[in-house]
Design brief:
The protein is of the alpha/beta class and about 600 residues long. Strands 1, 17, 18, 20, 21 and 22 form a 6-stranded antiparallel beta sheet that branches. The protein has a 5-stranded mixed beta sheet with strand order 12-13-14-15-16, sandwiched between helices. The protein has a 4-stranded mixed beta sheet with strand order 3-2-11-10, with helices on both faces. Helix 1 crosses helix 2 and helix 2 crosses helix 3. It is globular.
Length: about 600
């Protein structure tokens, strides 16, 4: 078994009496006027200081206590990413409660399962529509006593209800220990029914502090970030607590549709993102480069690839880079606010060309790896230790091991307590304190982790060939037209692929080539099919012939969370895709 640990750094400690709200009270008392969060206010941003944030959290926590929330009670939280999400989360924790996050896109059926399984006592919704979903779900989750709606003044009403108990909040918060349960985050269920991951205050505090050690260059007093990833996901949630620990200002986007404008106006110095966002930025810039500008853009892409591969660029490459910077990279930096220096990417594999492009533009992309069960990051590339094609080295105090069958095992204080009310699944996941991740990987000689596939997603063809789909799918998604790609071939004679198209890129592609017609006719046009065929060829170049894609189909629509085909963070739910597109898959093997 091959293992790796952090190189040189001693892990930060967490005291037994500390919890996730400790930093809030401590900093509010020490530097009450210092800014910590920003929310949109018309065309500008309104800054709230530590004391104002702490006071708001204290009032809402008092309201929750007045509403009957006791130590260990579960409170569901369904909302988009906004300041009120953080306030509600901290208030639940301060009252000794356990936050149960729900994605804003979750169906009533999904909510019913989570509310029922968690035994949530109360629920907080962001909007009236989300409240309707929760009300529908309550039919199967009778423990939920009421649903409070943020947009309808629900948090203000809680504050008024708890006015007489406000003086009790800090004592209640201080009684919460590091070992107490902080949250139950339900897995996205890519392989079955969602399971509730139990994460403690210690899990989050410990992981945030180790992350702060290795990402210190991102987390200075003048640094800031924009929150736009769903706070229901463990990745964004860890970022929330990391920023509070480091005293880094968090601005909250108005919604995913406004992220581009909000990045420009909030001017963050670093972002935590998923590869899809970086793909959108790259594709958008490429789309705007029409005519002769496309040659200039392609020149910048080529220069970025050479720049990223050359450890000591010569005069010629430096000149090419300088030209590309003036003509292209400067515009990329401006589109991202002008101050952005780092992006930490997680949740899915990052295509190397994206890392090279943004790095050449002066924005270093640091890829990391983790799971809900590991409180998000277990490994991360850092400004001082970055290796393209890897997900970095372990955080301080984290041990990564590669089992004999290639499975990644993880140990450390970031490992969850287990699955809520599911001892059997917990026993399957944990092996003598180590988490069986289900992912396959390799460690290079310097301890950098490379993800090679997912154990349960390995395709076994009828000829007995084992094919990990991730590499092929990543290569396919590198094409501007491809939104989603899923490789199939289990017990089949060869590998095939399901392709979906990005509608914005399809229209831009058609305009560039003078193509007209409906979306359906464009999808079947010779030009589009030729472009996808090229993408298939490039993907196949990375694998052996036995692993290559022999047939493919462009689907009529994209995969979506509403139909359960992808998770809210756009991870494929393969079983559901296979069920929903069984006819198209059969056709791939009969024509």
């Amino acid at each position: 078994m091959v293992t790796a640990t952090a190189a040189g750094e001693e892990p930060a400690e967490v005291g037994a009496d500390e919890n996730l709200t400790s930093v809030l009270w401590r900093t509010a008392d020490a530097t009450p006027g210092a800014g910590i969060v920003q929310r949109p206010a018309g065309d500008s941003w309104e800054t709230l200081g530590w004391a104002e944030l702490a006071g708001t959290v204290e009032r809402v926590a008092a309201g929750l206590m007045a509403a009957g929330v006791e130590h260990g009670d579960r409170v569901a939280l369904m909302s988009g990413t906004r300041l009120e999400w953080t306030v509600a989360d901290l208030a639940i924790l301060a009252a000794g409660g356990v936050t149960v996050p729900l994605y804003e896109t979750s169906s009533a059926e999904q909510c019913a399962w989570i509310l029922s399984d968690s035994g949530a006592k109360l629920a907080i919704a962001g909007t009236a529509d989300q409240a309707k979903t929760l009300d529908t779900a309550r039919g199967e989750a009778s423990a939920v006593e009421e649903v409070l709606v943020i947009d309808d003044g629900g948090l203000d009403a809680l504050s008024e209800r708890g006015e007489s108990r406000r003086g009790e909040v800090r004592a209640r918060a201080a009684s919460v220990k590091d070992s107490d349960l902080a949250t139950i985050i339900y897995t996205s269920g890519t392989t079955g029914t969602p399971k509730g991951c139990m994460l403690t205050h210690r899990n989050f505090l410990w992981t945030a502090r180790q992350s702060r050690i290795v990402l210190t260059k991102l987390l200075g007093e003048t640094d800031s970030t924009l929150m736009f990833l769903p706070l229901a996901h463990v990745f964004a949630r860890l970022v929330q607590f990391l920023c509070l620990e480091a005293g880094v200002t968090m601005s909250y986007a108005r919604g995913i549709e406004h992220v581009a404008e909000d990045i420009q106006s909030s001017r963050p110095t670093f972002l935590f993102s998923v590869p899809r966002v970086l793909e959108k930025v790259f594709n958008g810039a490429q789309r705007k480069a029409q005519g002769a500008k496309r040659k200039v853009f392609n020149f910048a892409v080529a220069a970025a690839n050479d720049w990223g591969d050359d450890g000591s660029p010569g005069l010629g490459l430096k000149l090419r880079h300088a030209i590309a910077d003036k003509l292209v990279y400067t515009k990329i930096r401006h589109a991202l606010g002008g101050e952005l220096r780092y992006v930490v990417s997680g949740g899915a594999p990052l295509a190397p060309y994206l890392a090279r492009f943004f790095s050449a533009a002066g924005i270093t992309v640091l890829e990391g790896y983790g799971l809900t069960e590991t409180t998000a990051p277990a490994t991360v590339n850092t400004p001082d230790a970055l290796r393209l094609g890897t997900v970095g080295r372990p955080l301080p105090g984290v041990e990564i091991a590669i089992a004999d069958d290639g499975e990644i095992l993880i140990a450390g204080d970031l490992i969850f307590s287990g699955y809520f009310r599911n001892a059997e699944a917990t026993a399957d996941a944990l092996d003598d304190g180590k988490l069986r991740t289900g992912d396959l990987g390799e460690l290079d000689p310097d301890g950098f982790l490379v993800i090679t596939g997912r154990k349960k997603e390995i395709i076994v063809t009828a000829g007995g060939k084992n094919v990990p789909p991730a590499l092929l799918e990543e290569r396919l998604k590198a094409n501007r037209l491809v939104s989603q790609a899923m490789v199939v071939g289990d017990n089949r004679p060869f590998i095939a692929a399901l392709i979906t198209l990005d509608p914005d890129e399809l229209q831009a592609f058609a305009s560039e080539r003078g193509l007209t017609g409906t979306t359906d006719s464009l999808r079947e046009s010779e030009a589009v099919r030729g472009e996808i065929a090229n993408a298939i060829d490039k993907a196949n170049a990375a694998v052996s012939r036995a692993e290559s894609i022999r047939n493919w189909v462009i689907l009529e629509r994209d995969f979506n969370p509403e139909d359960g085909e992808v998770t809210p963070t756009l991870k494929l739910r393969r079983k559901q895709v296979v069920e929903h597109f069984s006819g198209e898959i059969e056709a791939l093997y009969t024509r």
